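In the present case, backbone shapes were mapped to integers, as reproduced here:
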Amino acid sequence: MRIALVAPHATAISPQSPAEEGTGVVTLARTLGRLGHKVTVYARKDAPAQPRKQTLDPGVIVEHVPAGPPAPVPADQLKPHIREFSDYLAARWRRNPPDLAHAHFWLSGLAALAGARGRDVPVVQTFGAAAPDGQSERLRPGQKVRLGETLPGVRLKASLARNVLGVLARTSQEMQEVAAWGVPRTAISVVPWGVDTEQFVPEGPAARRNGRPRLLTVSHLGTPAEADPVVRALVEVPDAELVIAGGPRHAELDDNRAHRILAKLAAELGVADRVSFTGAVRMRDLPALLRSADLLVSQAWEEPHGTIALQAMACGTPVIGPPGGSYQDAVIDGTTGLLVPPGQPALLARRIRALLASPAQLQAFGVAAADRARARYSWDRVGEETVRAYERCLSAHVPGHAA
């Protein structure tokens, strides 16, 4: 197939996120290329020196679309530039239409639909982390939200989901949410995000430790809420240390509001000597950091693809996460890690203590986690499932209709 991956943010690699979705789009493109497909990634030109076209692998290229300033722009601030982006797609596809366009992130879907209009280009959609007006795109379990009210733009996303040929949901929970928007279940495929099982492996160097049991949590530090419950749980996990990774560069942490709040909380709780902040972590340094941890602990519902959890699992590090979203699919409770509801730091602490007190079980969890990451979430398998989802959508496509 000739496949267009539409992702204006695909080359915007942020130092604040070791799990940047844009790099995953490029990895998906290369995976599809290895399967014999011709792939073009349409990404926004975000640096003056970027060429118009860049060949990644045989049959896999990135086209850097001039839409907006040639500088990084956060995904949730791309809206003013989407019209220019979609006009480029329309002109490009008028001359050389793909067999299928796969849009990543809701604004990309709007651009793809506009570019495909009247050109018989079927469009499928994957929703990402960013949502209209910077609001969360995902609903927490039990949260009651009427369309167009407390989550601005939900109605628009629902309309988009109903107008594309199909939706590739990243989790079973997302599939249920999309179905609730009126999308037929036959038009929804669950295809998870993948993990690089060659870079993230149990074997290899580990970051230096200081002799304490190590808990690791990864946070963008956009809000203290992601790490707050883990800091509180640390009070009841004697001798363990908590490493909070991510956010701005280490030298800029003091200017970050979430960092200041979390540091103050740790001091008030008497655990400041056991909490450390790394700041931004380079992708090449991430496997060693993950391997150094006894447990990856997350209490954030909003990690859209579960990428950090998958990377930790692939490194043989068990995961404690919330029972929802990507964690519910990736973590087998009691086998590769534990699922603990957020907002219960005492319960979280008990589960952590029990695991740390049982090195044999912790090791067994790590082995099972690595096996599951390799077997279920390798990019090769994700690529094959993506192609099957495309084929199901194309089998239902009526020529003459873009979506």
